[in-house]
Amino acid sequence: MADKSTIQAQPVSEANDPQGSAIFQDTMDRFLSTAKVEAVYGAPMQVGDQFIIPTAEVMCAMGFGYGSGNWSANNDEEHEPTAATGSAEGSSPPGNGVGSGGGGGGYTFSRPVALVIASPEGVRVEPIIDRTKIWLAAFTAAGFMISMSMRMLKR
Amino acid sequence: MALTIETRTGKPVYAGNIKIVPFARSVRWQFPKVPAGFTWNRAVAVLAVYPDGREEVIPVRDSTRRIEVTLFGLAALWVVFSLLFSRQGYPERRRKDGR
Predict the structure, then answer these.
(1) What is the pLDDT of residues B25-39, one digit of tens each?
(2) What are the tens digits of pLDDT across the range A71-122?
(3) Considering only CA atoms, which of A27, A26, A24 is closest in space to residue A13?
(4) Sign (positive or negative) of CA dihedral B21, B27, B33, B36
(5) B77 in reach of chain A (CB within 8 A)
(6) Torsion-angle region of residue A32: left (phi > 0), alpha (psi -120 to 50) or beta?
(7) Cβ separation of B20 and A53 shorter than 8 Å?
């Protein structure tokens, strides 16, 4: 075979893609900053003689993937026609190529959990109940239980 | 895989003359050599320091999560008991089978 084209895939490192790595690192740093205390406690608000501090939970998942590849064709020998390439004239021109690409995805979720209420009488925590979430969980659990019971009865 | 669980203290907040110190717990899971990870951060408690020097730790309870976990726990228990009954056979069925 005269066709000596080679394809090499390699991960992008800081050495050959410093800008891309910096962007990924910056995004990861921002992602990790969600673990700060300030991310789950809001600023206190004064309502009459009470101070209200909202609290929350924050969930964040993130991932990136990137890579690059280069293609080189050694055209020292005469390009012979093959079944794959057809005639020599119709074959792709010799040369080198480099390509790189990347992608990523993430998910961020935040939900209020409770209110810290500070009044002259003292400090108390009032929970915030998400009824929609509870109803969804109840329907899911009930559906699961009913379907399992029906399967058991069929046996 | 680096899993980190830590409880952090935030900057104290003054509500009138009551000092409130927030606490948060974070769970971080970061894959080595790969830019991917997971973070879960939530409020766990507040420390209230009153002007007379009295201190009180008040936990921040997530009622929605508790109810959800209870519901799913009940469903899981239901399945476990259903499986146990179906394996042993109901008493009526055992009588019919002559077991």
Answers:
(1) 999 888 877 778 889
(2) 877 655 544 544 444 444 455 556 788 888 888 888 888 999 999 999 988 8
(3) A24
(4) negative
(5) no
(6) alpha
(7) yes
Which of B16, B46, B67 is nearest residue A116 as measured by Cβ atoms?
B46
Q: What is the dihedral of CA A6, A12, A14, A20, to 10 degrees?
A: 130
Phi-psi region at A86: left, alpha or beta (left = phi > 0; alpha = psi -120 to 50): left
Q: Is B38 on the interface with A (CB under 8 A)?
A: yes
> What is the Cα–Cα distance from B64 to A133, expressed in whole angstroms?
8
Kindly report the nearest CA distance between residue B73 and chain A, in angstroms.
Answer: 9
Q: What is the DSSP letter of A93?
A: P
| Side chain identity, residue A141 | A
Identity of the amino acid at A117: I
Which ipTM did the prediction report?
A: 0.78
